[in-house]
Input
Amino acid sequence: MSVLVTDLLAGSQRALARLLTYIENEHPQAQAALAALYPHTGKAHLVGVTGAPGTGKSSLVNSLAKAYRAAGQTVGIIAVDPTSPFSGGAILGDRIRMRDLTGDRGVFIRSMATRGSLGGLARATGDAVRALDAAGFDVILIETVGAGQSEIDIARQAHTTLVVEAPGLGDEVQAIKAGILEIADVLVVNKADQPGVQSTVRALRTLLDLGSNRPPSGLHHGLPAQDSRQPAADHRPDEWQTPIVETVATEGRGIDVLQRAIQAHRAYLRESGQLRLRERQRQEIELQSRLQEVLFRQVAERIDPALWQAVLDQVAARELAPADAVERLLQTVGLAD
Amino acid sequence: MSVLVTDLLAGSQRALARLLTYIENEHPQAQAALAALYPHTGKAHLVGVTGAPGTGKSSLVNSLAKAYRAAGQTVGIIAVDPTSPFSGGAILGDRIRMRDLTGDRGVFIRSMATRGSLGGLARATGDAVRALDAAGFDVILIETVGAGQSEIDIARQAHTTLVVEAPGLGDEVQAIKAGILEIADVLVVNKADQPGVQSTVRALRTLLDLGSNRPPSGLHHGLPAQDSRQPAADHRPDEWQTPIVETVATEGRGIDVLQRAIQAHRAYLRESGQLRLRERQRQEIELQSRLQEVLFRQVAERIDPALWQAVLDQVAARELAPADAVERLLQTVGLAD
Output
């Protein structure tokens, strides 16, 4: 076992930071270290935090981290910015956060920006979360900006996903919400001291009830939400009703309710067997994507570069369709159908 | 050649609509039809339109389409919504647009929503664009919501990418902008009749000049932008300076300037050789991703399902790291390193 791995397991934040840099740079040491750390993972509760710009996600993550620290739990924060190859946004968020949390050894904060490759950031984020998990953090908050497919892929790596909204966002934003409501385990309406909060909560409740993959609201129960009219006694461990929690993160208001909602979701995941099921799905998807990558690398090495260019020329000249080009390339390495 | 293909090439919008449905549903006929249509592609100018919610992208696409129609050109519109598995947003946008453009045979509009698979939407969008290209549309507008990685991947399929901004968006939005400025060939500040337009234009110009991949502003020239202080005589065909165009799409203001900017970018792409270069890069990426997919399908068929489950069990029990699991699976099909 490498010094990096033993240092990290012994609690060295320097070793952890170095491993995260290796992961970001796709350094060969990263995968070896992660394989050695793998038996030490699976203990942390992974909380995804996503939502549109302007909803106050960073303040919310900050407040949550402080609340967990006050309760004696250690917290890792991964701030992911899929939109910024410049990583300007991520760095900015980091600095603001650092002011509040710096100097506390029970908190570790890291920003990750996109490398431009499709799926590359989701993979790197998964590896980073695993490194923090092995390092022993109790709660890992994974914050993403925006609500595109890559953010959804990143949020799916969490056990509990918070979708953050704010009152008074426009109609176009409202339409977008529908897409991320599906992945929300807990809906947070932050900035709840601003006008329009009640109509936002009502609109979200309606959208939740419309969600095509869910049974009608009368048939499923879960955490008694702040706005819920379901009696708590109806609780069944195999169903989860997404609660809507109102917060004012900058003042710490509602953070205790949010913590209890996250706790209740974790209990639901355990009791219902969903925790194991979700982990297995995640692992299966990871195996598939790794298999795909390794396979491609091996076959790409066996394809003659001159042939690759010749085939590309024919595609460019519109003489050969891409699907037929792939078939021809695979024939030359004996792998065609 | 199938009836679908001959009908589509003869101008049948019904055949085109059917092919797009096949593409969305990954129907086997889609790939065969696209292969047959491939020699008829490569003529349309592909314009990507992306930007944050609330910037008025849909109105802009609408105005642009009407302006192209007035100039006698046919227009295809693909509206992509990567955030909405419900496709509520996409359908909404469609209806609004239909009011203005319906009944005109020179315009074809189609919305596409995500199927949830990573990269699946980008692929389907690429295929849809190819179908419209073969059907003979002069200009194809590809509109995406938001600014995540998947939107960037979709925008990269275009020849000319417009990034739409609006005055008065908050600081967090500002930070996000940096990420998509890199992909902008033309920056559009829409809603230019609203307060703050000049400070937005200044901020964007500063961000553009800071862009790390670009030479300092004094060294590169291109289209004389509305706010440019470069004399037009400095034009060199091998450099492009992203212009900033102010529009009020709802009133059609600035649309003529925007059309000229798109035209100038197309001329630049041709003269500089970038058009061929970009197409080749796109084709190479497409070949790689198709190759990866076919390879995985073939190898997955050769892996014993019982072994797959046994390996997954070991990963779930944290006895085997994912990287080692992949190695073991590849050994059984004789493909390990």
Notes: The radius of gyration of chain A is 22 Å. Residues 1-40 of chain A form one domain.
